[in-house]
């Protein structure tokens, strides 16, 4: 009887769903509509039509999905759409920055540029290079790391492994304060000391200011990495009759060394671009000065600033500034990649 | 070689909170003693006072005496690091050092305390792994990381690491609670062999395990939640499980609480 009629009731488990290509279709539609609307309204900023398109995308997704699939699925799709729009908003400026640096920087970037200084040409002539700036940056940043990294790591070890009382709280507080010091204040601090002793500018003074800026970053990231080491490892080592300092040196630090190295590399990447302390303390130089303890030196961020300031928006100095920017970004990116490589190499292995 | 332990009047605190009170007992050398009791009664706390690990916890404090062959571990001038070299410990969850290979893990107790030649270490590692019944399974991959083994193998690795330093006493804090029955059986057999060489104290939640493995059993209990744990009864394992003297022990054994 009822089976012979074979009435098909709508399934309570299955609903209608949009095809897989629908997000792309809605995106294309909203871009086209956005372009159309801004053309019609006479808006010429590309940001404006992009925002209009983004808004249309989110609204269109909701309306179409609500119609076809239902309210709940529509909200889900809107959340996905918002995530995509946010992603694009974050990525587009980055891509644009890299693109403009690369396109403007490659004009004068060649081996000659990387291996010669500005000693032979003045700022408005073509030619010259950044060898002196690269050398200065490497030396200043290198010396700053040699000072700040060990002090930072040891401070973090004290705070995590030993510090219990008032001294630890005071140290944490001051590290927090140091994290917020503006770079020019660090520079002024060292400058005041230099003036007290009547000193001429020299590279190491810049290193000291950079070390002040670097130290709290190293302390914070090392602290986090040390806290991630499970306590059971420390207990296992102590239970074997290993004294505490050896436990820290041979068990805790090796377990967290990947993260600590990453933290140090990222701190280096941060100070590599600091201009203010270098401006005050190292002064810049158009000749190569390989001695950081005597005489003014050049550094990459300072070089970029000085070239651009003298360039009036075009010309040889302008091209050189962009090429130096490209070099600086490449330097920071290489440091980042090295940091990730070290972290992966040193991560506790789980192979069989 | 294996030493006896005499505890008298031991009380342990976490800050101002008294965790266990007035514990006195004797552990004979080359025997296995099991500590049983309900959760939170202080068995693990007491175990940790025997190798001075209790004070590593923040606020940990101990009163009373623990004599290792007539030497008070808490006496004046006693170095806790040396105590821990004589009284080893195996923990509830296997914790091999993740950055070290199997060989380095077993040798860690020796290497972290002095410098040894590779050949000397190789002998010790082989002996310890054989003693822990793990040699045949790992002898071809001593250079592989310690964390690549199964749970039972990792625990046996930790036991090998603990016995490599030749302690006089071996403390085991619920060593099988994170393992499956087959691995548990392997470790229980191992305890039976190890007791020829070491004094063993094992904390366990599993009463049947205590009955299988130990020569003497100690039952701990709390008067009420928040009260310090006390030693209720300690006796030959057979007598504890068949004819205990205290009613609370009888109740716990027969599962009326716990």
- In CATH terms, what is the fold-level topology of the largest domain in chain A? MetI-like fold
Cα shape of chain B? globular
Classify the beta-strand content of chain B into a percent band. 25-35%
Whole-number mean pLDDT of chain A? 86
List keywords for this structure.
heterodimer; A: 352 residues; mainly alpha; MetI-like fold; 2 domains; 73% helix; flat; B: alpha/beta; Rossmann fold; four-stranded antiparallel sheet; 35% helix; globular
What would you note in describing this structure?
The complex is a heterodimer of chains A (352) and B (258). With 352 residues, chain A is mainly alpha-helical. Helix content of chain A is 73%, strand content 0%. Chain A has two domains: 89 residues, no CATH class; 216 residues, MetI-like fold. In chain A, α4 crosses α14. Chain B has one domain: 3-Layer(aba) Sandwich (Rossmann fold). Chain B has a six-stranded mixed beta sheet with strand order 6-7-8-3-9-10, with helices on both faces. In chain B, β9 and β10 form a beta hairpin. Chain B is globular, with a radius of gyration of 18 Å.
Record the SSE blueprint.
The complex is a heterodimer of chains A (352) and B (258).
Chain A: H1 2-5, H2 22-41, H3 46-68, H4 71-105, H5 111-115, H6 131-162, H7 166-179, H8 183-196, H9 203-228, H10 231-239, H11 244-272, H12 276-281, H13 300-309, H14 316-346
Helix pairs in contact in A: 2-3, 3-4, 4-14, 6-9, 6-11, 6-13, 7-9, 8-9, 9-11, 10-11, 11-14, 13-14
Chain B: E1 5-14, E2 17-27, E3 32-36, H1 43-49, E4 60-68, E5 71-72, H2 80-86, E6 87-90, H3 102-111, H4 118-131, H5 135-138, H6 151-164, E7 169-173, H7 181-194, E8 199-203, H8 207-213, E9 216-222, E10 229-236, H9 237-242, H10 247-253
Parallel strand pairs in B: 3-8, 3-9, 6-7, 7-8
Antiparallel strand pairs in B: 1-2, 1-4, 4-5, 9-10
